[in-house]
Amino acid sequence: MPRIPLSWLGEHVELADGANAEAVAASLVSVGLEEEGIFGAQVTGPLVVGRVLNLVKETHKNGKTVNWCRVDVGPEHNDDKDNPKDPQPGDEVPSRGIICGAHNFVEGDLVVVSLPGTVLPGNFEIAARKTYGHLSDGMICSTEELGLGEDTEDGIIVLGKGIAEGIEAKPGDDAIALFGLDEEVVEINVTPDRGYCFSMRGVAREYSHATGRAFTDPALAIEVPEAAGEGFEVLLEDDAPIRGNVGATSYVAQCVRGVDTSAPSPRWMQQRLTLAGMRPISLIVDVGNYVMLDLGQPLHMFDAAKLTAPIVVRRAKEGEKLTTLDDKTRKLHVEDLVVADSTGGHGARAVALAGVMGGSETEVDENTADVVIEAAHFDPTTQARTARRHKLVSEAGKRGERGVDPELVEVAAYRAAQLLVEYGGGTLDSARTHARAGESAPVEIALPLDYAERVVGIDYTRDQVVGSLEKIGCTVTAGKDDGEGETLAVLPPTWRGDLRIPEDLVEEIARLEGYDAIPSRLPSAPGGRGLTRAQRSRRALANALAEAGATEVVSFPFTNEKTFSKLRLPEDSPLREAVRLLNPLADDEPLMRTAVLETLLPVAQRNLARGEDAVAVFELGLVFEKRGERVPVPSAASRPSDAELEEIATSLAKQDRHVALVAGGPITPTGPLTEARAWDWADAISFARRVAAAAGTELVLEQGESSAFHPGRTAILSTAEGERVGVAGELHPAVIKAFGLPKHAAAFELNLEAVIDSAPDVVPSEPISTFPIAKEDFAFVVDEGTPAEAVRAALIVGIGDVAEEVRLFDEYRGDQVAEGKKSLAFAVRLRPQDKTLKGTEIDEIRARAIKAVASAVGGELRA
Q: In which residue ranges is the amino acid composition biased (Basic and acidic residues) (predicted)?
């Protein structure tokens, strides 16, 4: 987030009278630049200049040598000479006694002293304290202690040297004002479309828009002379443009010779960089950073002696590597744009990732004499992709990927060269290279005069529309009135590359005229039809499962091949054909789930691992069926054709909504009079039936097999029409072990959409009979492989409409039935709607039921 020192901002725009950080932040907020933070004075209290009058070196028991100093801090702050707090030789002049551990100063030097009551950065309050046998009545300060950057003087600040070079002062002078430590700073949040606000130039312009104060463009104040020919040769050779955009449209190379790299940056520059949140490093680096912060144009400095002409801007080669300034060797991608020189051949050696970070081989160091300044306009998309590909975040990259003013390259390069000449003693080359390729000029936008009113809902006048657009730098030309209103021709300024369509211009009009002027009008909700049938069904079944004791959860729909193996999916299972993400949230879960159990089972495992004794969790979620290897990406140049849209639609994963449940462990704990009962396969089937009932349908159960379930305790679930919609039962012991679940843990999964679709559109109401119930029990001996559901269905057909309930209550295998046979016992409730059944009628119904079972499945009534 950019930090804006008010004094720096005031160089480019007239600040309102008495403006402080809060007022400036409020003005910037009004034009859409959100306040992120306000930083007041870094130092408060008595921070003054002092002169060292006397210095005595004392070595103590711990082996450390300190200086016991008498320091003149001015008449207002010196101790009374007749009553010093800690007398020593030299007390004939009023002063203060201070202990200091630094050794880079001598008697007579002017230093910076924080007196008791001073508060330094980090809320560090200074007080008089006894140390090394003396009362130290203050502290002699270093640059780091004052928040002016890292110590470069190997000790305290000495006026006239280093960061304090050129400062003239006398004892007692206010050092806060001397070093600008009373400066206020506003930190702002810049949206991605307004990269020009990553500079003092851009923020000053916005402050002018907010307050009407006069703005002076610093770029216009820099007069760039005509170049006396070409300097360092530059060739732009991008043979693989992305989306039609060449990698570099403009590249300036300006050489400054004989720069003294040991020369310090001027104090004012170091101070501004520090206030803006950047650490001063060296003259050459500081100049590049200062110009970037001021104008918004990123710069890079090459050691000219390490470069071989010509410079070539190109795409990286397959397998090419580059060691960047952070000393990391990076394998480059063929889409990366690089700056290369001709060491080893034409454009053979990459020396920088264009607009992102330079390379170590051409880095400026203490032996550098000649500097090549690079100022370029690179493709923002290329820069952003390169930065993310290599996980490189830099201040230059932040600006470049958001778009910078293409007309700034020569101005910024020349400004940096001026500063190097002024403070580094260099000589400016009169030759300068400016290579161009492609097109970076803004495109004219047609804007109907009433379009802003139609979009925002405010009746803007013509003067408001035109005035707002001209205020941000647009050139507005009156258009023709075709009978439906005037259309303006708007040419955005070069620094507003984000203005491309009419809606962008409307946004500018709205924010400059004031967001607070836009009325709040809540739209009237049209009369609706309520929830859809699917929505009602989903809510009903979720409530039904919750009422039965299960807890709803939501898991991320991402999984991996290991989960497939834990679920014992065969290698040729279609469930293993999962959609693979190119950029997954987690590297170990790159696949989209093909069944809800793939992510629900780990949720159950996690809950049990955290101390739960039992678990019963369910989830309603989407599963993803792969339908193509890769979704085609159409060109962004125009609307995709119908054929392209159809191809995309058929390539996207098919998404169905499923419901799944996992239950295991005791339902209730063991009590004094009761034994604990655990969730089992019967509960899983019961839960599945509850889901179907809530959706308004019934499921048909058939014993079957599924890889994740126990081979003898698994029910295949189908609709009445015979469509398989899910599975329920006890999980396979290997699956239970893999996920750390309780013994006999059970689960089900249903294709919820298929279940809902199988329900009738209208559920008929069942009249309630007022007549008594007749109860009958049947036990049939059938073949081992005969499903109980088939016997139950035959009973219902044989009994007819008077069957209110037919329920299996026992299953027997043993000595009393033949081998290969089993006995199935059913409880039947008979109740007609219009009468009480007589004994003879019950006998007839019983006979029909026995005959129906014998005919359908060959069952014999057990004696």
A: 73-85
Give me the CATH topology for the region 234-436. Phenylalanyl-tRNA Synthetase; Chain B, domain 3 (3.50.40)
Q: Is 508 annotated as a binding residue?
A: yes
* CA separation for the pair 534, 393 (Å, rounded): 47
Residue 348: CB atoms within 10 Å = 14
Going by C-alpha positions, the residue among 772, 790, 767 that lies closest to residue 780 is 790
C-alpha distances in Å from residue 687, one per residue of 339, 733, 735: 65, 21, 20
Q: Are strands 3-5 and 185-189 parallel, antiparallel or unpaired?
A: antiparallel
* H or E element, residue 209: helix 200-211
CATH topology for 3-40+183-211 is Phenylalanyl-tRNA Synthetase; Chain B, domain 1 (3.30.56)
Sequence-separated (6 or more) residues with CB below 8 Å from residue 631: 648, 651, 652
* CATH number given to 445-517: 3.30.56.10
Q: Is 238 annotated as a binding residue?
A: no
Q: Exposed, middle or buried by CB within 10 Å (0-12, 13-18, 19+), for 625? A: middle
Q: Rounded to whole angstroms, how far apart are CA atoms 697 and 541?
A: 12
The answer to whether the 3-40+183-211 and 445-517 domains have the same CATH topology is yes
Residues of the chain below pLDDT 70: 80-93, 149-154, 240-244, 482-483, 763
Q: How far apart are CA 649 and CA 640, in angstroms?
A: 12
Please give the C-alpha separations between residue 176 and each of 15, 173, 467, in angstroms, as whole numbers: 22, 9, 43
504 is in an annotated binding site: yes
Judge whether 823 and 862 are in contact, CB under 8 Å: yes
The reply to whether the predicted model has a pTM over 0.70 is no
For 104, the token pair is 């880079």
507 appears as a binding residue in the annotation: yes
Q: What is the pLDDT of residues 159-217, one digit of tens each?
A: 887 777 777 788 999 988 888 788 888 999 998 888 999 999 999 999 999 999 999 99
The residue among 254, 297, 497 whose CA lies nearest residue 412 is 297
C-beta separation of 827 from 809 below 8 A: yes
Question: E strand or H helix at 513, and its extent?
Answer: helix 502-513
Nearest to 382, CA basis, from 367, 404, 397, 368? 397
Written out in words, the top-level CATH class of the domain with range 774-861 is alpha beta
* The CATH homologous superfamily of the domain defined by 533-633+641-758: Bira Bifunctional Protein; Domain 2 (3.30.930.10)
Domain positions in the chain: 3-40+183-211, 47-178, 234-436, 445-517, 533-633+641-758, 774-861
